[in-house]
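forwarding from the other thread:

> can someone predict this with L-homoserine?

sure thing
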Amino acid sequence: MINIAILGFGVVGSGVAEVIKENSKSLSDKLQGQELNVKYILDKRTFPEHELGDRVTTDFDMIVNDPDIVMIVETMGGSHPAYEFTKRAIEAGKNVVTSNKEVVANFGTELLDLARENNVNYLFEASVGGGIPIIRPMWQCLAANEIESVTGILNGTTNFILTKMIDENMDFSEALKIAQSLGYAEANPAADVEGLDTCRKICILASLAFGNTISPDKVHCEGITEITLSDVSAADMLGYSIKLLGRAVKGDKNTYVITAPHLVSYENPMAGVNDVYNAITVCGNAVGDVMFYGRGAGKLPTASAVVADIVDIARECKKAITWTVAEKDPVCDYKEAKVRFFVRTDDKKANDLFPNCVFCTTDEGYAFITEENTESALCEALSKINVLSKIRVL
Ligand code: HSE
């Protein structure tokens, strides 16, 4: 029997218990007859109706001091006390599996080092892309490549909201309420709609891809709160959908990392990624583009990724992931990167100032897509006209 403890019995933690129970036979087959046993659940709440209700405790010390526990599943969310519990668990020689992108993005370097020193695993497949396998494929299956770029729709809640706005003309707040009721949104959904959740996830992928710590506090981050139905319909007229993207592109000297809404051409398969689905395109110098697609949030998809990590550890797969702190900050100033902007304006001067662009007429004036230039040069040029909105183009 393999004894585990689950820290946090919310949407994901209870999903982990459910998958372990529902798939017990096939999991046991994969573990040569051994069974996974949830010995403890750490939560401030009680769950008297749940069949594992008698395993619930508020005593972390009891869990971390129990020699029977070989693995701790951290599904608490938030940085604290999740970070402190993770650290203590690793120092006590326990393997840790997490879905907590906030902890991985902010403390991943330290915790991965600590896990290596203590000869245990710290695995976080569920921290990015919900049920989509992305961490292990990038670390193992794409190991032959130098990664050139990673581009992802990484937040189910905002993709769900944008899809409802685009397809059903639904109001932003109504769509958010549905996403919350389906268990997609963060406890504080500001982290979803203001882009921070996507930012944490692209930082995890960029650190993995390029081998250096990329911290969310170094990355420019915009959410979807400013996107209007007028943007959506003008983008559509030009042949684009609007998606919140995390992007990381390796440059000669440093790395361009950004979280922001982007126009995505209908010819790009990312434009067809809707609802709670996430997609990540990884470009490797040998393989070219590889795209990963699946449910990016929700109870059972996320639990699927957590339980896969549990199985990996139970099979004693030790393939420690690592990245290191670079001597110089690897992230470039996003304003110096070359981009194109989709622009909506009601200013007639736009035609003269951007003579090479194709304009379309909208309810409020015009929309066009700029030629490629540095973001700072484009913003300077755009400061001469009245801009109703501007969104980067993929
Ligand atoms: N709030 C997150 C999302 C949950 O909507 O994608 C999964 O990380």
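The mean pLDDT is 96. thats all i got for now
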